[in-house]
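Hi Y.,

Following your request, here is the sequence exactly as I used it, all 112 residues.
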Amino acid sequence: EVRLVESGGGLVQPGGSLRLSCSASGFTFGAYEINWVRQAPGKGPEWVSVIAVDGTTYISDSVKGRFTISRDNVDNTVYLQMNIVKPEDTGMYYCNVGHLYWGQGTQVTVSS
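Below is the corresponding structure, written out as tokens. Let me know if you'd prefer a different format.
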């Protein structure tokens, strides 16, 4: 059974940092790219970043220069390092495999 579990969300002040984790199991982790997608209250899903099997990364223009994605193929975990966060970064953050399997999400709230 494919399982993705996000963690690391919470309340953070503007300009602060958070590191989200996506722990995966039930499939050959190193053979798949992993995405981060977020959804702000009242809005549709927004793709944030992806990390390929070879470690190549792509990131949305809305977070470029502030967020970094990485993966640990030993611990089967993908990370999203969020720096200089803004109120518009508030939302539920999900990781997925091939946009087919999703975790339950972790809430990020950026507020003073």
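The two ends are 40 Å apart (CA to CA).

Thanks again,
Q.
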